Amino acid sequence: MPDTDALETLRAALEVFARERDWETFHTPKNLAMALSVEAAELLECFQWLTPEESAAPDAKRRQDIEHEMADVLLYLIRLADRLGVDLYAAARSKIEINRVKYPVERVRGQARKYNEYEDYAQPDDAG
Amino acid sequence: MPDTDALETLRAALEVFARERDWETFHTPKNLAMALSVEAAELLECFQWLTPEESAAPDAKRRQDIEHEMADVLLYLIRLADRLGVDLYAAARSKIEINRVKYPVERVRGQARKYNEYEDYAQPDDAG
Amino acid sequence: MPDTDALETLRAALEVFARERDWETFHTPKNLAMALSVEAAELLECFQWLTPEESAAPDAKRRQDIEHEMADVLLYLIRLADRLGVDLYAAARSKIEINRVKYPVERVRGQARKYNEYEDYAQPDDAG
Amino acid sequence: MPDTDALETLRAALEVFARERDWETFHTPKNLAMALSVEAAELLECFQWLTPEESAAPDAKRRQDIEHEMADVLLYLIRLADRLGVDLYAAARSKIEINRVKYPVERVRGQARKYNEYEDYAQPDDAG
């Protein structure tokens, strides 16, 4: 990946991929969001019955599965962004800034309970 | 974003973000995969009752929500990749090549029915 | 199903099923909620690329898949309820009453736009 | 709930609920499967950052949230079954029998590793 950005390279590749197959009809934002959600669940499934510790050290086969599912999530996300004209990188930068304000270091640092409570409190906004 | 890559910039920012808050304990791969899956569903919720056509032209408020949820998905995905040492870009490139073989143009082009059947064929045991 | 209730019959069968296999260890509420979420996505996958109309008339093979996935969702839900001591039927009755107040007939009746807006408005609570 | 079955009582109540609001149009199987999947994720969110042990003993507020989300999952599942003419109880009974064959006691009993491997074996193409 020399000059251009990773996200843009993938976006362009996916656009060609869908056009070659005449899949634009199926790629409505609603359908793409469904597909993304299905892939996220397939990723989750890789960790389903593992302990937290086991989840940090998957064996080679599981690791391969995990990488494929993570790739699927990213690909559908980039494709959805393309169909809606969303700048993913800008959106992500902006969301980090929002989170910085929402979870100030001095308030949430190193406190499991606080973290959970804050999540609870934060949920309405998260769903917004 | 001048010299460095978007994904790497975001990865580094999230690493600092979590370290400052002592959230590494919570950020097991299993928990991050759950969080990613929850955010994917919140994204899906934005499109839930829309027709396919409406989903392609969300109003300004909904569009803002969609961008935030897409950002959340990307951020958790990058964070998960970092915790597992996965190169997201390489994984995505490799998955596109796999899909190229799995869905050859001459076989699936412009055929809604074929597309559905192929999906079925590709994930025959999913429903088991 | 003669004298006893469907939900109780299934609950009892699942309890025996898990005990016989020594699966209680894996069946923490957190893991069961994950499993349920994965099954819900597998159900969603059955409808993924269908039009709304097609989704109402699945062919025989797809219909079989759908029934299996719906069963999986119900089974994990009942198992989760059992582990937490939740009375599913009472919870469902109570939620219908809450929804009756939340979505008054005269306000939401037959209005697609209102429905969507209301959903939007309702989201913060839904996530609560 | 004296004479009739819990699932049938809820089904009938939901049918009236949707008809009173003219929501049948929105309640395509595809949309209902999406809604169910979103509710399953909201349920998952209740357990997101908890340890396995904490997830088994939620405090009163969280428990209330969990019950509401479980109810939402059940209600959408029953509504979907109604729209497709699926007998949920029969489907669940039949799925338990399938699982009995798929996970024989002597093979999977009390073995975490076997359990995981078997899951792998059972859904080999999921990660594809």
TrEMBL record, chains A, B, C, D:
Pfam families listed in its UniProt record: MazG-like (PF12643)
Membrane-traversing stretches: none
Keyword Hydrolase found: yes
InterPro entries noted in UniProt: dCTP_Pyrophosphatase (IPR052555), DCTPP (IPR025984)
GO biological process entries: nucleoside triphosphate catabolic process
Gene3D superfamilies, A to Z: MazG-like
GO terms, molecular function: nucleoside triphosphate diphosphatase activity
Sorted UniProt keywords: Hydrolase
Entry-linked PANTHER family: DCTP PYROPHOSPHATASE 1
Name of the featured protein: Nucleotide pyrophosphohydrolase
Organism, scientific name: Acidihalobacter yilgarnensis
Source lineage: Bacteria, Pseudomonadati, Pseudomonadota, Gammaproteobacteria, Chromatiales
